[in-house]
Specification:
The structure is a single chain. The chain has 366 residues and is of the alpha+beta class. The protein has helices spanning 37-47, 107-113, 131-147, 187-202, 230-238, 260-263, 335-363; strands spanning 4-5, 10-15, 21-27, 64-68, 70-71, 74-75, 80-85, 151-159, 162-163, 209-216, 244-249, 267-269, 275-277, 285-286, 289-290, 295-301, 311-315, 320-324. β5 (70-71) and β6 (74-75) form a beta hairpin. α1 crosses α3. Bound molecules: flavin mononucleotide (FMN). Flavin mononucleotide is lined by residues 56, 105-106, 123, 126-128, 131, 241-243, 302, 304-306, 330-331, 334, 337-338, 341.
Length: 366
Amino acid sequence: MASTFGTNVRVSIFGQSHAPAVGVVVDGLPAGFAPDWDGLRAFMRRRAPGQTLLSTQRTEADLFEVLSGISEGKLCGAPLCMVIKNTDTRGQDYAGLKNTPRPGHADWPAQVKYRGHQDAAGGGHFSGRLTAPLCLAGGLIIQLLAQQGIRVGAHIARIADVEDTPFDPMAPQLDDLQDGYLRVLDARTGERMAAAIDAARLALDSVGGVVECAVTGLPVGVGQPMFDGLENRIAQAIFAIPAVRGIAFGSGFGAAGLRGSQHNDEYALDDAGRVTTRTNRHGGVLGGLSTGMPLLFNAAFKPTASIFKPQRTVDLARGQEAELALKGRHDPCIVPRAVPVVEAVTALAVYDLYLDYVKEQAYGIE
Ligand SMILES: Cc1cc2nc3c(=O)[nH]c(=O)nc-3n(C[C@H](O)[C@H](O)[C@H](O)COP(=O)(O)O)c2cc1C
């Protein structure tokens, strides 16, 4: 199912960018859990558009309404349905897009696949707007993981050519992340990133970047072999985020240039006598299974497709090449708003596999 993810906890996303609403239905959550709604609202604010000139000027408060799944303030076992009304829609900005597809966006393949019946306004179901309900589900699941001592945190590792301090692979600095629109470890880097985004905006252009994510507190053995490994499931969830171009765990592509003796993480015993590794180039996952070390990966985002610089396209109605002068409101850089989305979808994948692990532990008593 294209818009549904997960086996133990099933998350279904619905809505379009300029439809009346976007939302999510989450099935399989544990009854009795009392969500921290203020915490979820704060999480949603990190993704919300219109906060600064560095983001799209579409202003959406992303206030959500809970339609089902709650009784007396707690999850009650029924599917949890949460909805966010789209309040600042301007479908007319996209009137010509069916005939003149934007380079780099999903307009053209969607036009062919759905034979012109797709909702073209704001990219319809392909819009970054659909990441709001992903954050609703993921933000809640981050709370459930936290109850188990599992933390998920991400930062902007890079925008254009400006790089933040990377996470320490042995102990990611989740408590040192800066609040604010640019979530980085080093505030001065954030200022340089802001300048890079603004320069692209003023040039009617866009920039891309990289988000680094860490998950700490995972026990050993979360994940399944072959098709349902931690990497597989996280990658599947990460590629649900529009504009993602790649994902790399641990040392990633850098591993290809190393010798085994340089890349292997040797085992050791910690003070409590538990098996650990001396380094963490493997990024907390071997054979698709968590190793108990921090899980680490980088996700690459392309520069926003919708730019205001005139571009060449094809006028499908006239059957001739044309120039596209874009209207609408767009993020000159997607990366800052994508950081909570990366955390959210990572939580969906990790929690789903964690529930497998809990069942295995319950049944695996010898
Ligand atoms: C939070 C967020 C906001 C986005 N905002 C825009 C935008 O303003 N303009 C745009 O062209 N693309 C934006 N995108 C990306 C497009 O939705 C995406 O590039 C497009 O659907 C094509 O999908 P693909 O890039 O994964 O191939 C955004 C993505 C995210 C995650």
